[in-house]
């Protein structure tokens, strides 16, 4: 799994099914391991990726995930972009609240995954869909 | 779709999750377990998650649901083998795993189920009306 990954290039994975969410987890894990994130940080990042990839599928109607190794001069990290062209998130503040869900979930996907990463950006609109960028830095 | 095997050991059903489950596989496991509890009349379910390197909100909810379903079907569920990094991540994610009993390993999980079952039997015995005190 890890052997075939070129860390210099962004790794893309489309999200169209349940199995794709599993593939996203495996891809993120492989990149996180190769980037030498600690075990706890790997676990947090893969968990956040699982939540957000599921959101891309369930709420965004499918989309794509891109995983990139980033370097800010001091530290290395892993950045993941989740993009869909779904209906967007109408009330972002509400959607980021613990326990709120518009579907049948626990309402922890967005709010919980934000706690698991170091940087979390979200752009959403009814026209362009939703794009979430998260970054986890090595310590 | 892959399926998670369910093993019967005495009065206990043992589920050792060894694969990275898709959501559908997780839902299937819930249904399979409910059926096996009824078919076997087992009083305990042990779910071994030693091999899971993450538990996200979907799997967390599945574990809670299994615990609730088995309770209704007169079986006690114990989740065993959670990795430290998974525990740290779960707490930060905000998942409380309501109603789930946990143990560090399968052996302790079996002790917990045996103890819970013995307690329940005692309780049922105490509940039976005593013939001597019932007559005035």
From TrEMBL, chain A:
Protein name: Anti-sigma regulatory factor
Source species of the chain: Micromonospora parva
InterPro entries xrefs: HATPase_C_sf, HATPase_dom
Lineage: Bacteria, Bacillati, Actinomycetota, Actinomycetes, Micromonosporales
SUPFAM superfamilies according to UniProt: ATPase domain of HSP90 chaperone/DNA topoisomerase II/histidine kinase
Residue ranges occupied by any Histidine kinase/HSP90-like ATPase domain in the UniProt entry: 40-139
TrEMBL record, chain B:
CDD domains: STAS_RsbR_RsbS_like
Entry superkingdom: Bacteria
Domain STAS per the UniProt entry, residue ranges: 2-113
PANTHER family cross-referenced by the UniProt entry: RSBT ANTAGONIST PROTEIN RSBS (PTHR33745:SF1), RSBT ANTAGONIST PROTEIN RSBS-RELATED (PTHR33745)
Name of this chain's protein: STAS domain-containing protein
Organism (species): Micromonospora parva
Upper classification of the organism: Bacteria, Bacillati, Actinomycetota, Actinomycetes, Micromonosporales
């Amino acid at each position: 799994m890890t052997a075939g990954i070129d860390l210099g290039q962004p790794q893309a994975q489309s999200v169209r099914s349940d199995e794709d969410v599993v593939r996203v987890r495996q891809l993120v894990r492989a990149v996180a391991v190769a980037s030498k994130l600690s075990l706890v940080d790997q676990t947090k990042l893969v968990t956040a990726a699982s939540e957000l990839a599921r959101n891309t599928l369930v709420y965004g109607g499918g989309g794509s995930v891109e995983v990139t190794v980033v370097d800010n001069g001091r530290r290395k990290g892993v950045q993941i972009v989740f993009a869909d062209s779904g209906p967007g998130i109408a009330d972002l503040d509400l959607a980021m609240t613990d326990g709120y869900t518009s579907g049948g979930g626990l309402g922890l996907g967005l709010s919980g995954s934000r706690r698991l990463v170091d940087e979390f950006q979200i752009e959403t609109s009814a026209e362009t869909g939703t794009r979430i960028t998260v970054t986890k830095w090595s310590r | 779709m892959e399926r998670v095997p369910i093993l019967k050991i005495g009065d206990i059903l043992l589920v050792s999750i060894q694969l990275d489950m898709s959501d559908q596989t997780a839902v299937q496991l819930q249904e399979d377990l409910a059926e096996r509890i009824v078919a076997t009349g087992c009083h305990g379910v042990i779910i071994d998650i030693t091999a899971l390197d993450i538990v996200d909100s979907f799997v967390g909810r599945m574990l809670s649901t299994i615990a609730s379903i088995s309770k209704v079907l007169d079986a006690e569920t114990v989740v065993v083998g959670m990795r430290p990094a998974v525990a740290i991540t779960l707490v930060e994610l905000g998942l409380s795993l309501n109603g789930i009993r946990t143990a560090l390993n399968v052996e302790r999980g079996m002790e917990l189920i045996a103890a819970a079952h013995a307690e329940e039997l005692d309780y049922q015995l105490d509940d039976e009306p005593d013939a001597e005190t019932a007559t005035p």
